[in-house]
Amino acid sequence: MEVVIAKHAGFCFGVKRALQLAEEARKSRPGEVATLGEIIHNPQVVERLRQAGVRQVESPTEMKAGTLILSCHGVGPEIREEAEKAGLEVIDATCPFVARAQKLVSLLAKEGYEIVIFGDRGHREVMGLEGYGRGKARIIQNVEEAKELAFRQKLGVVVQTTQEIGRYQELLSLLGEKCQELRAFNTICEATLQRQKSALELARQVDLMLVVGGRNSANTRRLAEVCASTGVEMRHIETAAEISPGWLKGRQRVGITAGASTPQWVIDEVTERLTGEF
């Protein structure tokens, strides 16, 4: 059985940067160091940070002093202000691509646009983007929700950085009929596009596709959707321990891809189990 790893898989620049900032803070900052929510959406990485002494809080009010690291997904301006007013040292680990989307939402709000944020409602990144909209932003998860929008004079659009490009393009074609003026920014990050493209290419060449990454990771779930769209059998796993020998019977070629928040050591363990134990 041949095992093939997608050309683009695993950690992206923004994730590497966030984890580097966390590690530097752990070593150099006095007092408690904590992340606001999961710094990235990968349970194994979050657990390693916890064991190293970096705990996780859900609100700045859970800390009396110390250093608070904002997650890779970013936060709304009100949460940042809350942390600073509490006297906490704040390290901003927001992915630069997310930070760009935040600035664009703020710009659209200042210029009087009603704003559509295309993304997963309840996701930390999307909630943060909404905060920059000054009450003028609404979250749309799919085309069906977009159909319910009333006509607007000026409509601005940004998209969650981990969305699938085809869905975004479909949304834009509909929103063009919902307004007099449409100003749209494709804020899907390059790493997302690369991983989706290479996963799609590989899925078309294998008998089974394994998508490795946290189940709470939006970009990993999107990879799973992209792979499944080809018709190949697809399994979304977090660790090598989840692999069942029965999945591999009769397989000639197994493909592996991994979300942007999946560390290389997890990918290596999956590869080793496929090529070794079975």
Short description:
40% of the residues lie in helices and 21% in strands. The chain has 278 residues and is α/β, with parallel strands linked by helices. The termini are close together.
Any chance you could write out the topology, listing elements then pairs?
Blueprint (H helix, E strand, L loop, with lengths): L1 E4 L7 H16 L4 E4 L6 H9 L3 E3 L9 E4 L6 H9 L3 E4 L3 H15 L3 E5 L5 H8 L5 E4 L2 H4 L5 E8 L5 H11 L3 E6 L5 H14 L4 E5 L5 H11 L4 E5 L15 E6 L5 H14 L1
Parallel strand pairs: 1-12, 2-3, 2-4, 4-5, 6-7, 6-8, 8-9, 10-11, 10-12
Helix pairs in contact: 4-5, 8-9
Strand order of the largest sheet: 1-12-10-11
Classified in CATH, the superfamily of the largest domain is: 4-hydroxy-3-methylbut-2-enyl diphosphate reductase, catalytic domain
Instruction: Categorize the overall geometry.
Output: flat
Class per helix and strand makeup: alpha/beta
Task: Using the coordinates shown, work out and report the CATH topology of the largest domain.
Answer: Cobalt-precorrin-4 Transmethylase, domain 1
Helix content: 25-40%
Q: How far is it from the N-terminal to the C-terminal residue, by CA? A: 9 Å
| Sequence stretches where pLDDT stays below 50 over 5 or more residues | none
Q: What's the CATH architecture name of the largest domain?
A: 3-Layer(aba) Sandwich
**CATH class (first level) name of the largest domain:** Alpha Beta
What portion of residues belong to β-strands?
Answer: 15-25%
- What's the SSE pattern? EHEHEEHEHEHEHEHEHEHEEH
Query: What is the radius of gyration computed over CA atoms, rounded to a whole number of angstroms?
Result: 20 Å
Mean pLDDT: 95
